[in-house]
Amino acid sequence: MNCDTLSASNRPESALASAFRQTLPIILGYVPVGFAYGVLAQKSGLSGINTLLMSLLVYAGSAQLIAVGLFAAGAAPLAIVATTFVVNLRHLLMSAALAPYLRGWGKTRLALFSYQMTDETFALHANRFAKSQTGPAETFGINLIAQSAWVGSTALGLAASTLITDIRPIGLDYALPAMFIALLLGQLKSRLHLAVALVAGVLSTVLMLAGLDQSHVLAATILAATFGLGVHAWISKRSS
Known about the structure:
Distance between the termini: 53 Å
Oligomer: single chain
Number of strands: 0
Shape: globular
Helix content: over 70%
Largest sheet: none
Structural class: mainly alpha
Radius of gyration: 20 Å
């Protein structure tokens, strides 16, 4: 190995390269789900330009898929807006969780960051910010790459919508859970984190089988977080 090779291997990673590396699991999840959204939106009667504008301006996978379903069912515009608004209320909690790390940012920068925040980028940034990795170049690089993947996959879905009659046999619906599992693995820092994740998964499954179809994930999350907080407080009390 010559000196040029050694110097290249020791060269610090650029902000853009680091952003792409960290965003790769999100990209792998966004492409099939965004593709499915593009196909479903086109088949529901939404125009191509409006389908792309939703991915560019709304940029919320679950809300977009719900909106497309309501649009196909002939729901009133006010009902669609109200439903997607309620679905996206979780962003208030995500913003509150990240706000302490961004106190030195100006309003314009905060507005741009919040516009591109999704469940997936929140999980990634929460892990980064806890390590004091709040550099704007890398942060906005992650957001831009993630949204570009989502908009691009939507365009692919639109282009292929005439060739696909049913997306269920393809198994695209598993892409999003698989992506969240990959993001979760990077946040398991202790046995307590693992225990909370397992409790949340088990509770969510049990509640869904019990008939709590619409809110089983939210209920399981709250219960598992309460369990984790209780165990953490008990351990801290014992150690003191």
